[in-house]
Amino acid sequence: MKSIKHLLGHWLSCKDASRVVSQAQERSLSAFERWRLRMHLAVCDKCTRFERQLQFMREALRRYRS
Ligand SMILES: [Zn+2]
Question: Could you give the CA distance from residue 41 to residue 9 in angstroms, rounded to a whole number?
Answer without folding.
Answer: 7
